[in-house]
User: Fold these one by one.
Assistant:
Number 1:
Amino acid sequence: MRILIIGAGVAGMTLAALLEKWGVQATIIERAPDFEHAGYMLGLWPLGYRVLHGLNLYEKFKEGCIPGRQYEVRGNHGELIQHWSLDLITNQFGPNLSCTRPQLVRLLHESLTTTQVQFNT
């Protein structure tokens, strides 16, 4: 069986890593020229760590992240609309960790051993 994954983002890289874990090889195609094409921040909630634990990547992921301690909603001009502490969630389930999207994609990519990624495709 030949598997083609369209997109080398978080979902595509995660799928490739899971497939490799199950002994299945895939090829990923990505239209961007590299992994730096989008650099916004991501916040992962504790439930999302299950996949990273399953890929044995959680500890390495945690090393490069910033823990989120609060959540704020701001208006168009930066005025604070609402503020929540994340202490209750952190104490019960674990931290909300933030990193840049390229950091997470690179971590997933570095875990791959057989998957080929073709950029500009």
Number 2:
Amino acid sequence: MTQQIKAVLFDVGGPLDTETIMDSEIDEQIKRSFRSRGLSISDEEYSAANQWAIDSFAPKTYHSIMWKIAEADMDLIHSVEADLMQTVPERNESRGHFELRDGSLGLLAELKEDGLLLGLAANQPKIALENMDRLGILEYFNYREVSGSINLRKPDPRLLLHACETLGVEPSEAIMVGDRIDNDVVPARMLGMTAIRFVSGRHRTQQPRSWNEVPHANVRSVDELGSTIRKFVQSPPNTSGDDGPE
């Protein structure tokens, strides 16, 4: 028996923050760091390492890219990572700290007006909450925690479960909106939530490994996301028995 949808959880990177500039600048910084240390990594080789990290469901994509390119040379990896961390402030400034997706504020306001509870479910540093507050995003959310504030990281399903418990809803009464199969769809479906994938950014080519990792819907725009959420509110998908045969 399906239950009424009462809440929507949002990942931040992807659905709300496009991270387009950030991803591009991180990629270029990693390539520069390797090249400055004598490793002539081509753009094609970097793209292959990136795709390998995505296809292998690597929790921390950039770590896996470095690992693949450096062939597990930890001294090299640590030096490239140090460069990456040192340039964080510069990247944040160049992208304005948050690349707000057009139309997302309007959608959040409409969902709130419809009576839905809204929550965050994101692997983000605590400072992301300040950036969202500055842009007027945070005010729409009833649950306002991220991984950096509760010390849980997806794909650990406890991050999503904590959000649901704080909102006072069962997982089956909530929708998870995220851009990754591994970090968003997998833990959501594990808990019996409705999973909507916003196909966007670095992980747009990621594919499920079996039927129980397939999102209940794929969307590619804010308008499509809004209509899909409303469709599921009116008629929730049957998430019981999602695991199927072993």
Number 3:
Amino acid sequence: MRIFRVDNPHTKPVAFWEFAIAEVQAKFPDVIFLSEAFTRPKMMRLLAKAGFTQGYTYFTWRNSRPEIEAYFNELTGSQMQEYFRPNLFPNTPDILPFYLQEGGRPAFMIRAVLAATLSGVYGIYSGFELCENAALPGREEYLDSEKYQFKGRDWNAPGNIKPLITRLNAIRSENPALQQTNHLTFCGSDNPSILFYLKKSSDDASMVMVIVTTDFRNIQSGWIEVPTSDLGIAGDSGYQIEDLLTGEVFSWRGSRNFVSLDPSRRVAHILRIQRP
């Protein structure tokens, strides 16, 4: 597979990209064009319509539950779902968001889970696995940027989140619901810091529920509303769910259930109903 990450395509004429992408893909249809454009929404949409296979998004700066729900409802519930394929990056060579600077390891874990489960495609920039978050004072930019130097790393340094990223990728591989973007439903949670959503494959054969805290500092607890009708669970029936991150199995009943997330220990549940 061949991939071109095009830097700042919004600074070139859109007509050029329409021509260039069509010419390349006519001969090599498997070529992927990734638009690295953090620009105005209208231009991001125009680039997608011009033929870019994937595009950067504002996910990098959508941190709270209301921000995430509003943005992904736009991406998956409007006409954008027909032509815009979001590639989620928590960080980039140019951008170290304040959320990661302030939140440390729990923040990196939260953003990894969100990126891996909200979209069918996601990416991370080198050092994310090690929770690197040293920044230039007051700026969303790395202190020791690789744009200006070669950087050696100990990939097994203490505090790394390699096991989490490895597990997230395995879960994505095993569950078609997480291999696409648009079949996404946000579900009820009475805690504004707990995000709860359902992902389904297009044929409904694969369904995964994701519960994530957006608070990297404090324990957050609350009641969630499980979409039992979508999951084929009748009324107040009991059922078992498996946490795909840990292998734990929980017994739940009906739609209303209690969850608690401690960012120092567990930032998320990725759940699948255990069928008989």
